[in-house]
Specification:
alpha+beta; 1 helix; four-stranded antiparallel beta sheet; Immunoglobulin-like; 8 strands
Amino acid sequence: MIAARDFVLSLFVVLASVGSGLAADVKAKAEVSCAAAPKRLEYDCTIKLTDSRSGAALTGVNVTVGADMPSMPMAHNVKPVKATPGNEPGVYRARIVLEMHGEWAVKVDLAGQVRDRVVTSMRFEPKK
């Protein structure tokens, strides 16, 4: 009786550790697009998050978006802002305010069930 209980307890521990590792195994893929907002140097960004392996939409995660200028490290960076969920699963929206036009590294940080960071290089130009 004790051996059976120990086996069941051991099995439970193994299954629990495997289940908790599943979310950690998810690698995010982010498709980021940004469009000029009404004010100068403001951009409305749409972030589509999927699991890079399965292609499934990533929902229920906390998403923040920031940026820095790789050509001028530590001189130009954007304080991260919290993204809000969009109308479709895995879609999030955020408005960022840049310091100048040019090449920026947009950083999408995920927290919660999935923890990851995706960095996308983007060029921002003045509105035409």
